[in-house]
Amino acid sequence: MQALIFSWLTFLIGVVFLEKGLKNVKYLAGSFLTLVVIFVLSSFPLNYNLLNSLFILYFYFIFLHIFSDKSWKLKGYITAYYLLVLIVYIGLFFYKPEYLNFVVPFAIFPLLFKKNYSRTDTILWVLIVLSVALSYPINHQIFYILNILFALFFIKESVQKLYIELEKEKRRYRDFVDRAINSEIQKQYAQLDDELKITYKKLKEIFKLSNYTLSPSKIEDIAERVVEGLHNLGYSGVVVYVDTGEENIYRKSGFFPNINSYLSDKFQSIEKITISPDEKHIFLPLKSDKGKIGVLGVYKKEGIMPKEIEYLSTYANSVAISITKTIYFREINKLQELLEKTFESVDIGIAIVNKDFRIEKANKALLNIIGQEPDADIFNLIPELQPLEKDFKEVIQKRKTIDTVLSSISEKGSIYRVKALPLISGDFEDTENIVLIIEDITEKEKLEAQLLETEKHAVIGKMAAGLSHDIKNPLAAIAASAFAIKKRAKTLNDNRIIQLSEKIEKNSQRASDIITRLLNYAKPSYYKIEKVDLREILLSALDLALPENLKRKVKISKRLGKNIYTYGDATALQRVFINLLMNSIEAMNNEGKIDIRLTKNENYAVISIKDYGPGIPEDMIEHIFDPFFTTKEKGTGLGLSVVSKIIKDHRGEIEVKSKENEGTEFVVKLPLAED
Q: Which residues, 6+ apart, have CB-to-CB distance to 123 below 8 Å?
């Protein structure tokens, strides 16, 4: 039993290191814990046969691991099966204990249905399951030992699974690297390779070394092969020093006397071919079109012949060309990587579109706007661009630039600036590609709208302050005079003067109310924020908006959800719904039907107030929330403006849907209190 527990423990520890957790083998962990419980309980004076009933649970966990990807319905059937086996075992324990050894194998046989990676694994698994099942009635010690095979099989399976995942990852990485190579780098690499081949041929002719080549991959490798190649040709010592501007590379082979004296100034004093007085060593500068990039030094104790100087000079030029091309290749590669990173990092959508209007290359920002792989032409991927098809053709044919604004390219409410311009390379005027730039300016447009709204409120505030000062005082005098006239007329019993004075009083009060509303609209809002029940707010607003004399004429259809809360000012929200209800009642001339709904939609409470009146003309809908816009004869045009302001202050939204002769529906969305 201890060996069996140890084998499972070894397996689980191996899984932790291989898969970084027990998530994929949580059921096998249950099997291990069952074995631990059996082992611990075996030290107590418990009935041996009763304790062995836990092996049914042990095999149940193994089965759950094998079929972990199956549906819960199947797992439910299997659970019922193992529960039945356990019940049979317990029943036989009390009535027929001599048959107990034949029950546990029934908990093992379902494991035969395991799906394996190969036919060999299947045969091996079947042999393990049958061996364990048949060993239980024969000898329990053999049964314990054979159970170790399960742990060994799962260890093999985990390693095999990890190997398969590594192979997949390796293939994915290889594919990624292959796609990363673009045509420009391939072209530059091909040019560099051609020039290096010419250099190789020249070196073979100079030194007659048919097996000598230079690798263009690293400057360190070139320096290493240069010193090794010359040293093998018979020179006593060779040194190479290269300064790329970013790094210094120094390589030495063989014996080179007094080399440290040259290293102290990094060969800076050597600007031309320098030969020692004894003609035993020579230094040749390695130059590129930008200046000196290094020094090649050769020492030969027998002395350097004049003919060798010519060969070494030609060789130094070839080495300098190779190093220069390698540096150039590396710089091109870095520049390409920088351009690629910049292209992908910019948050504006950019794409290269060919003459067939198909995307050849696009950055992540544009793919996010499209929302799918660019496997069709640009007009199918972005239907909003279809009206611009003629303009796109002119971009290619006439090298014209497009700059326009479109709405809802990828999602409702989004606004995008679209720009298309010809891609012109080099001195060629003709182009077959388009650079497409799509910028999300939704937030910018919203900020501009908010700024306009703020300026509008500021103007209204100044106007309201002026009106309050210049009109309210005269209105008060008019109202007082009208009251005095009415009082005098009552003394004279002149009904005509009484009616006229009351009319003056009424209209003076109405003008004063308009000024008050204007002041209230313009000044900052202060709310008492609390958790409010929207159902109660709607019911109280309905009682206040619908007088007793209209309750029989106006039919109210309510469907108000319960326990729907928001954070806000109860009085302000009540004012919103009273205003909307009174508008609906007035629109129907105080008779008709109104539907009121209160529901939840994701993180919002949704309130709908719909009437069946004459509706709002389509050309007026976009203006109904503007201050002073009204269709009522005696309206001020501030009611719905105040409603919109209160809803926005509560981080909500209001929308109006209306058709003439069909009615109007106002939909208010407010954040739920729990969010």
A: none
- Other Cβ atoms less than 10 A from the Cβ of 208: the count is 9
Q: How far is CA 667 from the centre of its chain?
A: 31
Confidence grade of residue 133 (pLDDT, cut at 50, 70, 90): confident
Query: 110 CB contacts (<8 Å, ≥6 apart)?
Result: 63, 78, 81
Residue 320 and residue 332 in contact, taking contact as beta carbons nearer than 8 Å: no
Cα separation, 243 vs 173, in Å, equals 34
**361-392, pLDDT tens digit by residue?**
887 777 777 776 777 777 777 777 777 777 87
Tokens of 460: 């209204």
Q: Position of tokens 């799918």?
A: 372
Pairing of strands 402-407, 359-362: unpaired
Token pair recorded at residue 342: 């910049």
CA distances from 387 to 252, 383, 392, 437 (A): 69, 9, 10, 17
- Residues 6 or more apart in contact with residue 434 via CB below 8 angstroms: 352, 353, 354, 357, 392, 395, 396, 420, 421, 422, 423
Which residue blocks in 527-566 are alpha helix, DSSP H? 534-545
What count of other Cβ atoms lies within 10 Å of the Cβ of residue 517?
A: 17
pLDDT at 627 over 90: no
Torsion on CA atoms 57, 62, 68, 73, rounded to nearest 10: -40
Residue 290 CA to residue 162 CA, distance in Å, equals 52
Dump pLDDT digits (tens) for 44-66: 776 666 667 777 777 777 777 77
Token couple for 112: 């035969």
Place of tokens 């759950």: 64
Residue 403 and residue 435: Cα distance in Å, rounded? 12
Residue 509 backbone phi and psi in degrees, to 5:
-65, -40
- Each residue of 386-428: pLDDT tens digit? 777 778 777 777 777 877 776 665 555 677 778 887 876 654 4
- Are 576 and 646 within 8 A, CB to CB? yes
Tell which phi-psi region holds residue 121, choosing left (phi > 0), alpha (psi between -120 and 50) or beta: alpha
- Give the separation between CA 504 and CA 491, rounded to whole angstroms: 19
Q: Which residues pair with 656 in a beta bridge?
A: 666
Q: Which amino acid is at 601?
A: N
Cα–Cα distance, 119 to 114 (Å, whole number) = 12
pLDDT of residue 597: 93
Q: How many CA atoms lie within 13 A of 549 on its CB side?
A: 1
- Asked if 500 contacts 558 with a C-beta cutoff of 8 angstroms, the reply is no
**CB of 582 closer than 8 Å to CB of 629:** no
Tell me the two tokens of residue 194. Answer: 């051609």
Three-class SS state of 655: strand
CA pair distance 595, 615, nearest whole angstrom? 15
Structure tokens at 473: 């005082």
Give the model confidence (pLDDT) of 431-446 as tens digits: 678 888 887 777 676 7
- The encoded tokens of residue 401 equal 């630039």
Give the range among 17-26, 170-179, 476-485 with minimum mean pLDDT.
17-26
pLDDT at 216: 47
Contact 27, 69 (CB under 8 A): no
**Token match 């050309």: residue?**
619
Residue 35, burial from CB neighbour count under 10 angstroms (0-12, 13-18, 19+): buried
Task: Report whether pLDDT(205) > 50.
Answer: no
Order of strands, sheet of 604-611, starting from the edge strand that comes earlier in the sequence: 554-560, 592-601, 604-611, 663-671, 653-659
CB 62 within 8 A of CB 31: yes
The pLDDT value recorded for residue 514 is 61
Longest Cα–Cα distance of the chain, Å, equals: 146
